[in-house]
Design a protein that fits this description.
The chain is an alpha/beta fold and 602 residues long. The protein has three domains: 141 residues, 3-Layer(aba) Sandwich (Rossmann fold), CATH 3.40.50.980; 146 residues, Rossmann fold, CATH 3.40.50.980; 158 residues, ANL, C-terminal domain (GMP Synthetase, Chain A, domain 3). The strands form six sheets. The protein has a seven-stranded mixed beta sheet. It has a five-stranded parallel beta sheet with strand order 2-1-3-4-5, sandwiched between helices. Helix 8 packs across helix 9 and helix 12 packs across helix 14. The chain is globular, with a radius of gyration of 25 Å.
Length: 602
């Protein structure tokens, strides 16, 4: 089918040249993957666009990359109308799932310039595979050095950067995944597979799916909403699940909510089994009786066939990793990488050892070393662990930033080492831990340095919160925070304080939540609890928050205030710090003013 579709593209669009840029804009689906593979088979450069990006971002990417063909889903057509109100390189639109009689399509067609072709995906499949005007297949086969993707990083700051990835690089990464998949028996037949929900615009998801297709495994695409994550997993029954910590935190909350909904006796049994299975797991053992009583039911929430769960994009806490491994009875691996390193460049080993807060060892195709940053107090001579900026190189690396050689030269040195901006340390066993980020370090007025992303990662494990943004600067001696409440936990806490608040699902409950989050007594109790949690997790006194704004205007399935839609979070669930600050600038000022006034009063 891929070959037929690729030939159809060449025949339908005779103006196409080798290494032209073609894009797609929509949620993960089999059709998007087929479109991408077909274009790549004809030496076209694929430009995936995150499905949550705004019209302005789509206009920038398609213009910057000079995209000539764009495949879209029906729900994205309204977002494209403004793109065609400006000069655009797009010559053709491929409709992936759009009914011919769709009113959305009719409105879109009227707004489209007459020079832009529209074709349905099904029509491309029906084009005859052979034509005398089409060059032979060999003339169009890409080489290993040909560009395969331009992946636009969402980025936490600034304009998206186009990361150029060649075919050989993507195959190197996929080959390393295949090695791990096969030696660990995560895929043993074509009935096994992966659940696809992380955007295909992300290099990690792209490499994983390529690896799975090479070994002949299934790919089950999600329904399009994270609200349906667990029901989708139950239907898909994957053996491999790729996730990010924020999603896993949400999964943990759903499991705990399920436990809490049981009767008194069942909760007692669950508590006993959870505690004792954890003790068994720490000894490298597992009790089947506890599985029979409790954890087999948890496994069924994920489809019942999971053999491995892999986490990436942000640090995974040891507590969350342990909880999920105890509940699911499977290894949870943690990977590390950037788009520039060809997605993952290091991953933990599935060797039965219990190791937290490490991203493992380099995958083949990668070299990793550390470079001292003395001004931040990190050197490769540090004892007992060498520390410094993580540098990566190897055949899986990116070619450079599209149309930005200056930026490429800034991050890739003369010896080919890519400077990641992450701070790492090598452990006794040779594994790598990511401990800081060069740009996330701030200095408080009393001279203390704070790694705010690490502080946020710790506080985000507190069950009272769904999200947290921690802020500080060199003019203040303390930190403040903006947080989204975990509604079920906050409602329970509010009632324990004697406050009136409606139950989740009850008419007007969201407005009620917003109002109760403004209650000073509740906010102080939440701040006290969060700080106590932070101390238990090893945070220092200067890393505690002295001011908290609890914003009850939560959105979506993840109960968030920082979202991709409002521009304050990337598609990989990382906060865009400047956008978060700009949004709450006045609130942050008011919190610091209140702290100053209280200090004067005392």
């Amino acid at each position: 089918m891929v070959v037929q579709l690729g030939r159809s593209f060449r025949q339908r669009f005779p103006w196409m040249q080798r290494q032209d840029r073609v894009g797609f804009y929509g949620k993960n689906s089999a059709r998007i993957q087929l479109y991408s593979l077909a274009m790549q088979s004809q030496d076209q450069v694929c430009v995936p666009i995150y499905d949550i990006l705004s019209s302005d971002a789509v206009e920038y990417i398609t213009s910057h990359a000079e995209v000539k063909v764009l495949a879209v889903t029906e729900e994205k057509l309204p977002h494209l109308q403004s793109v065609f109100q400006k000069d655009t390189p797009i010559k053709a639109i491929v409709l992936l799932d759009v009914p011919r009689e769709s009113p959305v399509l009719l409105e879109f067609s009227h707004a489209l310039p007459s020079t832009v072709e529209i074709i349905h995906f099904d029509d491309l499949l029906s084009v005859p595979a052979q034509s005398p005007v089409v060059p032979s297949d060999d003339d169009w086969l890409p080489s290993g050095e040909s560009l395969e993707y331009i992946l636009y990083t969402s980025g936490t700051t600034g304009t998206p950067k186009g990361v150029m990835i060649k075919h050989a690089s993507m195959l190197t990464v996929s080959a390393s995944f295949i090695h791990n998949i096969l030696i660990n028996n995560w895929i043993v037949s074509n009935e096994d597979g992966v659940f696809s929900y992380l955007p295909l615009a992300h290099g990690y998801e792209t490499a994983v799916e390529l690896a799975l297709m090479i070994v002949g495994a299934r790919i089950a695409y999600y329904s399009g909403s994270l609200r349906n994550l667990l029901s989708d997993l139950q239907a898909a029954k994957p053996t491999l699940f790729i996730a990010v910590p924020r999603v896993l935190q949400r999964v943990q909350q759903e499991i705990l909510k399920n436990f809490a909904s049981r009767g008194w006796l069942a909760r007692k049994v669950i508590s006993h089994c959870l505690w004792n299975q954890t003790l068994e797991w720490r000894k490298g053992k597992r009790c089947r009786s506890y599985d029979f009583l409790v954890f087999d039911k948890v496994k069924k929430m994920f489809g019942g066939k999971l053999r491995c769960l892999a986490s990436g994009a942000a640090p995974l806490s040891g507590e969350l990793s342990e909880f999920l491994q105890v509940c699911l009875g499977i290894p949870i691996l943690e990977g590390y990488g950037l788009t520039e390193t060809g997605a993952a460049c290091a991953v933990t080993l599935n060797n039965g050892e219990i190791v937290y807060y490490t991203v493992g060892s380099p995958l083949f195709g990668h070299e990793i070393r550390l470079e001292s940053i003395p001004e931040m107090g990190y050197t490769t001579e540090d004892e007992p662990h060498p520390r410094g900026e993580v540098l990566v190189r190897g055949p899986s690396m990116f070619v450079g930033y599209y149309k930005n050689p200056e930026l490429t030269q800034n991050v890739v040195d003369a010896d080919g080492w890519f400077h990641t901006g992450d701070i790492g340390q090598f452990n006794e066993d040779g594994s790598l831990s990511i401990i800081d980020r060069k740009k996330s370090m701030l200095k408080l007025s009393q001279g203390e340095y704070v790694a705010v992303e690490a502080v946020e990662s710790t506080f985000s494990e507190c069950s009272l919160l769904s999200q947290i943004f921690v802020y500080g600067n060199s003019y203040e001696n303390c930190l403040v925070a903006i947080a989204a409440p975990n509604p079920s936990e906050i409602i329970s806490l509010a009632r324990s304080l004697g406050l009136e608040v409606k139950s989740m699902g009850e008419e007007g409950w969201k407005e009620s939540l917003v109002n109760v989050c403004l209650n000073k007594q509740l906010v102080n109790k939440v701040m006290e609890t969060v700080n106590q949690f932070g101390r238990r997790m090893g945070l220092h006194g200067f890393e505690m928050i002295k001011g908290l704004y609890l914003d009850g205007h939560i959105e979506g399935a993840m109960d968030q205030i920082f979202t991709m839609e409002n521009g304050s979070m990337t598609p990989t669930f990382k906060l865009k710090r400047q956008q978060c600050y700009n949004r709450y600038k006045q609130t942050i000022k008011e919190m610091y003013d209140a702290i100053h006034q209280e200090a004067i009063a005392h």
